[in-house]
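Dear colleagues,

As part of the handover before I leave the project, I'm documenting each prediction I ran so the next person doesn't have to rerun anything. This entry is a single chain, and its sequence is reproduced below.
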Amino acid sequence: MTDAMLEWQTRRFTELAEGPADGYVVRVRPEQVVEVAFDGVQRSSRYPGGMALRFARVVRYRDDKTAAEADTVDTVRALAPPG
């Protein structure tokens, strides 16, 4: 990640923030679509969605897509191993 990307990202997510930060958590409006690459999906009781992405990384921000066009948790869940 470049300094320019970090600066843009900070500015963008500050614009989308809903209310003040709660410790390390900043809640944002779900408007920015992010393309994420990962090596696999595993079941996990640690996260509310019930799964974790292995070696997840941001590929790019998708300004050509709306939040309504983004994949859902159910789409990702379908990639997880049964169990």
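Strands lie at 34-37, 40-43, 51-54, 57-61. Helices lie at 3-15, 73-77.

All the best with the project,
I.
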